[in-house]
DNA sequence: GTTGACTATGCAACAAGGTGCATATAACGT
DNA sequence: ACGTTATATGCACCTTGTTGCATAGTCAAC
C-alpha cells in the first residue's frame, strides 16, 4: 500500500508532525492520496518501527508540544525502491458507472440527476484547476523539478475533470431523450 | 458501499450463481467494480439476509450443483433508492502521482520507466476500446437503453485512457530532459 | 470565567478488500 | 489410473479505511 510511501514522500520534502502532515494531505498531496488524522497517527509509529522515519519531541510555546518526524536514510532507500517498483494502474472503481448500468434496467430517469450533479462537481474543480494553471503556470511549467512536478499534478487534475465533464455531457445527450 | 449494489445491478439484469457473477465481474461490469470470488461468496448471504435477493439450489448434471440468486422486489426498491441517492465522485487515489512527487525530491529518472510502463498499458486498453467502439458502435449508440448504457460505459473507458496517455506524454516531455 | 477555534495526539469498533488455503464434482485427454 | 481444466463454494487471517469518541494545551473574544 502506498499511504506509507505518500507519507515518506511528504517527509522527504520536509520533516513534519502528524498534525502538519494531515494538513498537507488536506491540500496539495491529498489530491492524489487521502488520509484522515486517525490513519496518520496510526501509520507514523509503524514507519518509525520499520526504521523509515525518526521522531523527535519538540516543546512549543503558545501551542501544545508536537512530535516531529523526519525521513531516515533507510526510508529514502525504501522510497527510491518503491519509485522504481512496477505498480499497476489503480483498479477502476466507479459507482456512477454502476448506476448507469442499473439505469439500463430500472430506467434512465433514476440517474439523470446524479449525472448532472457529477457534471457540476467536475466542472467546478476543472474551472478551479484551469484558473490555477493560468495564474501560476501561464508562462509554462518552469525549469526546476519541483515546479514541473507541481505542474504535472495540476495537468492530471485538468485532464481528469475534463474527460469527466465530457462524458457527463455525452451521457446526458444520450439518456435525456429515451 | 457499492459492491452490494453492483451485485444487485447484475442480478437485476439476470439471475445468477456466485460463480457466474464472478465471471461477469471479470468481464463487463468488472470494468467499473472489481470483486474476487471470496468477496462475492461473502456478500451474497448478506444480501439474502437483508432480503434483497433470494436463493435457490439448482441441481446440475455434468457439473457441480449451484445456488442461483435472484433479486427480490425489496432488492429492486433498494437499488432504485441507491440510484437516486447522491454519491460523491470516487476519491482520487493515484500512486503514480505520488511517485512523480517523490521524483521531484529523489530525481526524475526514478519514475520515467514507470511512466513509460503506464503509458503502454493505457495505450493498449485504449486501442482495444476503440476497436470495440468501431466494431460494435460504428453506426452510433443504438436505440435501446441497454445498448446506450453499454456505449456510455465504453466511452468512459476511451476517455479515461485517452487522458492518461496524454498525461504520460506530457510528463515524459517535461521529465526526460531535466 | 466561559465559550469557541486552533493546535496536537490518540483509541476502539467496524466495514471493506486482499491473500492464501481448502474442498468437491465432473469432463476430457493420455 | 492420472493429471488437467472448468465448475462451484467457502473459511481464516490480515491490512486498509471509516466513524465515533476522547483528551489536552493555548489563545482570543465576549
What does this structure look like?
The structure is a homodimer of 178-residue chains. Helices cover 65% and strands 8% of the residues of chain A. With 178 residues, chain A is mainly α. Chain A folds into 2 domains: 3-84, Winged helix-like DNA-binding domain superfamily/Winged helix DNA-binding domain (Arc Repressor Mutant, subunit A); 95-176. At the A-B interface, helix 1, helix 4, helix 5, helix 6 and helix 7 of A face helix 1, helix 4, helix 5, helix 6 and helix 7 of B. The structure holds a DNA duplex (30 and 30 nucleotides).
The CATH class name of the largest domain in chain A reads Mainly Alpha
Give the neighbour order of strands across the main sheet of chain A.
1-3-2
Low-confidence stretches of chain A: none
What characterizes the major β-sheet of chain A?
A: 3 strands, antiparallel
DSSP helical segment count of chain A: 7
Distance between the termini of chain A: 43 Å
Overall 3D form of chain A:
elongated
Strand/helix succession of chain A: HEHHEEHHHH
The oligomeric status of these chains comes to homodimer
Q: Beta fraction of the residues of chain A?
A: 5-15%
Q: Greatest interface and its residue counts?
A: A-B, 72 and 72 residues
Amino acid at each position: 500500500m502506498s499511504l506509507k510511501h505518500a507519507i515518506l514522500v511528504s517527509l522527504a520534502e520536509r520533516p513534519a508532525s502528524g498534525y502538519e502532515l494531515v494538513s498537507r494531505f488536506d491540500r496539495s498531496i491529498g489530491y492524489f492520496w487521502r488520509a484522515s488524522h486517525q490513519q496518520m497517527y496510526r501509520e507514523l509509529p509503524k514507519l518509525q518501527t520499520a526504521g523509515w522515519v525518526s521522531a523527535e519531541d519538540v516543546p512549543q510555546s503558545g501551542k501544545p508540544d508536537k512530535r516531529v518526524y523526519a525521513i531516515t536514510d533507510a526510508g529514502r532507500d525504501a522510497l527510491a525502491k518503491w519509485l522504481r517498483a512496477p505498480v499497476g494502474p489503480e483498479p477502476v472503481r466507479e459507482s456512477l458507472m454502476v448506476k448507469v448500468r442499473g439505469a439500463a434496467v430500472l430506467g434512465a430517469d433514476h440517474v439523470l440527476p446524479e449525472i448532472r450533479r457529477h457534471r457540476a462537481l467536475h466542472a467546478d474543480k476543472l474551472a478551479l484547476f484551469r484558473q490555477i494553471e493560468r495564474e501560476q503556470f501561464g508562462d509554462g511549467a518552469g525549469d526546476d523539478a519541483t515546479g514541473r512536478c507541481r505542474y504535472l499534478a495540476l495537468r492530471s487534475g485538468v485532464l481528469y475533470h475534463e474527460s469527466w465533464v465530457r462524458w457527463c455531457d455525452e451521457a446526458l445527450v444520450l439518456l435525456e431523450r429515451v
